[in-house]
């Protein structure tokens, strides 16, 4: 397997994009379960690759300790500006949206 770069890749955890917030990757592994597959004519155990698992442990700068409250809808044409210092997901239900 040749080396490859992770430049341009994103890392999502729980729906949050942590791509710019990962400080270091502490552990990255892909443990492999081995299956016994010893033939009747063999004198020793033979093992073949089985199910592979994966694990990643990292340190991040991301911290979301605040809570959000649903703001009131402003009048039509009035911009709504977030007062939070973290990303929020916005869902608009009903009404008409024009650009």
Written description of the protein model:
With 99 residues, the protein is an all-beta fold. It has a domain at 12-60. It is built from no helices and 6 strands. It has strands spanning 12-13, 16-17, 22-29, 32-36, 47-52, 55-60. The strands form 3 sheets. It has a two-stranded antiparallel sheet with strand order 1-2. A two-stranded antiparallel sheet has the order 3-6. A two-stranded antiparallel ribbon has the order 4-5. A hairpin with a 2-residue loop joins strand 1 (12-13) and strand 2. It starts with 11 loop residues before the first strand and ends in a 39-residue tail after the last strand. The mean pLDDT is 76.
Number of strands: 6
Based on CA atoms alone, the radius of gyration comes out at 25 Å
Average pLDDT confidence is 76
Structural class: mainly beta
User: In percent, how much strand structure appears in the residues?
Assistant: 25-35%
How helical, in percent, are the residues? under 10%
How many alpha or pi helices?
0
Shape: elongated
- Biggest sheet: strand arrangement: 1-2
Q: Secondary-structure element sequence?
A: EEEEEE
Residue runs with pLDDT of under 50 for 5 or more positions: none
**What is the CA-CA span between the terminal residues?**
48 Å
- How does the major sheet shape up? 2 strands, antiparallel
């Amino acid at each position: 397997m040749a080396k490859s770069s992770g430049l341009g890749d994103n890392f999502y955890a729980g729906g949050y994009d942590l791509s710019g917030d990962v400080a270091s990757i502490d552990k990255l592994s892909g443990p492999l379960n081995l299956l016994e597959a010893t033939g009747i004519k063999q004198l020793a155990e033979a093992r073949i690759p089985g199910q592979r698992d994966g694990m990643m442990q990292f340190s991040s700068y991301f911290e979301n300790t605040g809570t959000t409250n649903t703001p009131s809808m402003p009048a039509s044409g009035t911009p709504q500006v977030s007062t939070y210092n973290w990303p929020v997901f916005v869902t608009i239900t009903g009404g008409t949206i024009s650009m």
